[in-house]
Amino acid sequence: MTLPSPYHAPGFYDDALAKGRHRDIVGGRWEETPRIVLPLLTQHGLTGTDHLLDIGAGALRLGRHLAPQVAGYWATDLSRALMLKGWETELDDATRTKLPQDHLIEDTAFTYPHIPATITFALAFAVFTHLPADHLATALTNLRPRFPSLRRLIFTVFLAPEQHSGPHRQADGVVTHPDRFPWHMSERHVLTLARTAGFTATRHDHRLPRGQTLFTADPET
Ligand SMILES: C[S@@+](CC[C@H](N)C(=O)[O-])C[C@H]1O[C@@H](n2cnc3c(N)ncnc32)[C@H](O)[C@@H]1O
Fold it and tell me: What pLDDT shows up at residue 1?
């Protein structure tokens, strides 16, 4: 059976973490990614009063900056060990105090277990670039009933032209696929999945690492 992503290979996290590679697991670019992404989150409405859910937070490449900036920060990932490694090695003392370890939740199915219903904003950066479209559909579908106060989700995907059936080269050279990692989908597919889950999604043409495309998705009223 083909795995959805390298993350799903048995022992993947244990091996990479044992080799001290928690930054590589999330794609490196440790300083560049927050430098580009954090201003975009503010531009697209994240404020200091938000209660933020960082979906697929990894080694807290963004979380280490975000946790001190918001009223509440919670994170999920396929690997809690990866988030804990980020917590132990990448956070300063003040951020560790602000971010209790029990805010880092392992979540294999986008059901957001143990996350409080008070979440107002959600982020999934460079997560659905690594997963087939049905994962995005599940993540979106489960958000609305779990978080009635959610104002906005920001997520990224790789896009390919409509009706494109094979590999596609992204702006910075990454080759993506319709049927295997790294995954792409059409804009129309993204908008349809969002609408089905009760969101209005909008594409934003920012220049992002590896040529990902950013979407905002707002709950339909
Ligand atoms: C490229 S990393 C991005 C991490 C983080 N969002 C960032 O930008 O630094 C992708 C993350 O998605 C996580 N992931 C992969 N499949 C997942 C799933 N089914 N549910 C939750 N997280 C998942 C991986 O463990 C990894 O941390």
Answer: 67
From residue 170, give the alpha-carbon distance in Å to each of 56, 91, 133, 154, 192: 22, 32, 18, 20, 22
Residue 8 lies in a domain: no
Q: Packing angle between helix 187-196 and helix 133-146, nearest 10 degrees? A: 30
pTM listed for this prediction: 0.98
Residue nearest atom 17 of ligand 1, based on CA coordinates: 78
Neighbours of 159 (CB within 10 A): 22
End-to-end Cα spacing for the chain:
40
Mean per-residue pLDDT, 79-103: 97
Q: Tokens 């993506």 appear where? A: 176
Distance 207 CA to ligand 1 centre (A): 20
> What domain count does the chain have?
1
7 part of a folded domain: no
DSSP 183: B
pLDDT in tens, 47-58: 999 999 999 999
* Total number of residues shown for the chain: 221
Mutate to test the pocket of ligand 1, among 127, 143, 176 (most ligand atoms within 8 A of CB): 127
